[in-house]
Design goal:
This protein is mostly beta strands. The chain contains no helices and 15 strands. The protein is elongated. 35% of the residues are buried.
Amino acid sequence: MPDLALHVNATVMCPHGGQANASSSNLRVKVSGMAMASVADQFMIAGCAFMVGNKPQPCVKINWVVPALRVKVNDSAVLLQSSTGLCQSAEQAPQGPPSATATQLRVKGT
């Protein structure tokens, strides 16, 4: 079943409430006036307050591992609302999956 494609201004959050901001080199393919997000884009997280004991261990980036299977932008697979990713700390410790909660409503992919 197709699901919604992400753009760079979609609301993507870490499991602890931090907001992800996408940085894209895609200047050509847009949806709702914004660049489509792909695995080539960097998603940096701000505002994560996760702690391990007394040590801050915030999520700082997302590593996408299962993007769309059939849709590509500039030879990179696009990201869908159901794409699987892993939030990571600065020390590359896995912190859990991100969630995409708000995106555009027209373009779908598989």
